[in-house]
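Please decode residue identities from the backbone states below.
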């Protein structure tokens, strides 16, 4: 791990600006919608609108960690039970300048890792049994650095909050379908506005989700991971997910935004990824990443379009970006 001690510095101000801008837009969107609903119901006063929106967000913020734990069947492990895992998390969190997160394992076959929590002091980093069996130590170290960078950037807390906003819009839209109010035209108008707000909100949340993945990759390199090991880990995770059956992937569909890669799109990404593994040995070496730095990559139009509705950036673009850091 001697190479890992040479820290690189990357600026995150663009990430922070985008998170602030997207959050502002989403709150403005839901506030406008709640005002419209309040006017329709004859409720006036800004305190109602502010209170309603804040109540939903606070509830989401408070209960989301427990929901993730239950959904993923997370089991927290002690240093005695998983010494190597704890050692890597402790070293990376020290490099990142944050408190050591809780360390957990979930017994699912999908190879991946995820971080969640309400704040830097409440961080939790978890790995699946599938990723432990798939990656070598340095690749796993890079993935853990990626997850710890999410905690360091506080973007997982932002995602927890803003992901509630499209849900509010969708709930309002769904409620109007069964409205028996005499003012059917008003209900229909609110329903259409709520549906549009939901779609815009989802696109904004997806945009934030994709942007934060780039910065987590950079963050992993900054706190000690080797770029080619991060790239190799991403490559292996795509192939590992592509080899699973649909039932195994469906098991984690609702929480895939927390993962390192979009497991649902793994099979579609395989063909594109062949162009970054020059010797077809299933890993990405430092020499291959250096070669990629000066090579062009080809991304299909269909892949570019799918990226707009994906929780994660296109994998070839991510690995190319890592090559530029190498």
């Amino acid at each position: 791990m001697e190479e890992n001690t040479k820290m690189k510095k990357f600026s995150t101000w663009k990430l922070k600006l985008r998170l602030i801008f997207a959050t502002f837009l989403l709150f403005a969107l839901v506030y406008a919608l709640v005002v419209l609903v309040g006017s329709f119901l004859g409720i006036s006063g800004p305190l109602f609108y502010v209170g309603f929106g804040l109540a939903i967000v606070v509830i989401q913020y408070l209960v989301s960690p427990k929901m993730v734990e239950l959904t993923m069947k997370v089991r927290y492990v002690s240093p005695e039970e998983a010494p190597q895992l704890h050692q890597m998390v402790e070293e990376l969190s020290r490099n990142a300048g944050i408190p050591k997160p809780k360390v957990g394992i979930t017994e699912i076959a999908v190879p991946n890792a995820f971080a969640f929590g309400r704040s830097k002091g409440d961080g939790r980093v978890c790995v699946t049994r599938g990723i432990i069996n798939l990656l070598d130590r340095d690749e796993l170290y890079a993935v853990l650095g990626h997850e710890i960078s999410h905690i360091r950037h506080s973007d997982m807390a932002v995602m927890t909050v803003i992901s509630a906003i499209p849900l509010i819009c969708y709930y309002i839209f769904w409620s109007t379908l069964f409205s028996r109010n005499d003012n059917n035209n008003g209900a229909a108008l609110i329903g259409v506005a709520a549906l549009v707000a939901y779609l815009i909100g989802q696109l904004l949340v997806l945009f934030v989700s994709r942007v934060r993945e780039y910065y987590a990759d950079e963050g992993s390199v900054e706190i000690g991971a080797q770029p080619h090991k991060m790239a190799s880990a991403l490559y292996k995770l795509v192939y590992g997910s592509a080899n699973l059956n649909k039932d195994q992937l469906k098991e984690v569909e609702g929480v895939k935004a927390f993962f390192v890669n979009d497991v649902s799109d793994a099979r579609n990404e395989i063909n594109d990824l062949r162009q970054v593994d020059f010797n077809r040995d299933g890993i990405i070496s430092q020499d291959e990443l250096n070669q990629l730095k000066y090579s062009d990559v080809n991304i299909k139009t269909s892949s570019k379009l799918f990226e707009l509705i994906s929780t994660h950036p296109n994998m070839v673009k991510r690995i190319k970006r890592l090559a530029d850091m190498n």
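Observation: The two ends are 16 Å apart (CA to CA).
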